[in-house]
Design brief:
The protein is of the alpha+beta class. It contains five helices and nine strands.
Amino acid sequence: MQKLIFATGNAGKMREIRSILKDLKIKGEPVEIFSMKEAGIQADIEENGKTFEENAVIKAKAVAAAAEGAIVLADDSGLEIDYLNKEPGIYSARYMGEDTSYHEKNSNLIWRLRDASEEERTARFVCAIACVLPDGRVLTEKAAIEGTIGYEEKGENGFGYDPIFMVPAYGRSTAELSEEEKNAISHRGKALRAMKERLMYEGTDCQ
């Protein structure tokens, strides 16, 4: 069985990842999925890239250095708000400080958009996935979901900025969607499925 480590310790993110990759097979063999913590890996990663792709590769390579023989996936994702010149962007996790609660972050962003019209509240979630294979090759995929910023937090199903990100097609925030609904349309879901297809169907030699 092939071992795959995802470079995160976020429990909510790992639920999404396991749901989407649960039937991943490489060369006909099932894949066992671990978080960094579950794999016993600690890495001090400095995310100093200038794009989502660069940061995802930095994280994947750092974990791969401590995970010989495993496939390593990492993502860098964030929220881009057009009215705020695409802030918080690649700094989404560090916006207002890493120890600041997302309730505070969300409240601040809503306040900063207090003068924005409905048409000016456009935003998107962006996700880049990087994969480092045991032979050192690096694969990347990127995807996004378009939406708007709401006027208040709504929903309990998501995490991070999900409660303020409205999906027009559903008329709900991503925190109000079921796990299945969210995974079908989310930025991370799209990027993960694209990476999953590459691993499954491109004949990648992961041995």
